[in-house]
């Protein structure tokens, strides 16, 4: 039977990660493959059912041959009752068929009411014959399965053919079970990875598996690389820093007033009140955020930064950017970008190395 390949490990590698097994294929490819396996299983189930039907048909024919030649082979005690019942039903069906043929002859010469009565008898005979035939089929199959081998050549050939068909059905049903298990595994993994995509904005489980097996792929960047240095992240970013501004509340600007009629004015001095400090983020430059195997850098139009990997003390990620605190520097730098979680994901891998 044709269909999709049934050996997933031969096509896609599965990597064992901290988050569980991850297949080195896209989520879309996993979902497509699960659908293909289910479609294959549906068609294969119909084929397996057909094979079993063909096998039963051959067994029934073999059983019929054995019943018809029961005097030429020794019927075992456990089959005696089955064979006798099968013979009885065979005779009953033959009799019903003979009576049905006779009724058809009567129908052609009977009047209207006579034909109605004959039709009623025909329907009853047909119903009884179908019931007997169904019961007989089961007895014939039982006889074919249980009778000794190598007793009637014609029956033996039919039984061997039925056995081959059943073996094909069993093998196919085993593949169907495997296909269902693989489809379920793909669905479960696709579900886990879709949840990760919702949380991170990218397929972090897939990228974790790729990093574990082959590491990050080098990318081009505007940074001038040192010997042995490779860039792994190069994304547009805006450099920003927190700026503290101070203003005063509760102060007075002072005022003056005249004393009597002397023309002399008395001055009351001003005071600045309580200082209030406010911090705000100020964008300093636009450029490119770069992570290499040696440092974290920013290459801008007017400003540039470079932090050796070993000097990175702390990293915070936000919806629209990230902050990096450097050893020996009080305030962190902020890098505003479109997908900071992905940048931190790769940065974390570099820091772990």
List the SSEs and their pairings.
Elements: H1 8-11, E1 14-17, E2 20-23, H2 27-68, H3 77-109, H4 112-146, H5 153-200, H6 204-214, E3 231-249, E4 255-259, E5 264-268, E6 274-292, E7 295-300, E8 304-308, E9 312-317, E10 321-326, E11 333-336, H7 340-352
Antiparallel strand pairs: 1-2, 3-6, 3-11, 4-5, 6-7, 7-8, 9-10, 10-11
Helix pairs in contact: 2-4, 2-5, 3-4
Overall geometry:
rod-shaped
Strand content: 15-25%
The strand count comes to 11
Order of helices and strands: HEEHHHHHEEEEEEEEEH
The percent of residues in helical segments reads 40-55%
For the sheet with most strands, the description reads: 7 strands, antiparallel
The N- to C-terminal Cα distance equals 49 Å
Structural class: alpha+beta
Which spans of ≥5 residues are poorly predicted at pLDDT below 50? 1-5
Number of separate domains: 2
User: How many helix segments?
Assistant: 7
* Averaged pLDDT: 86
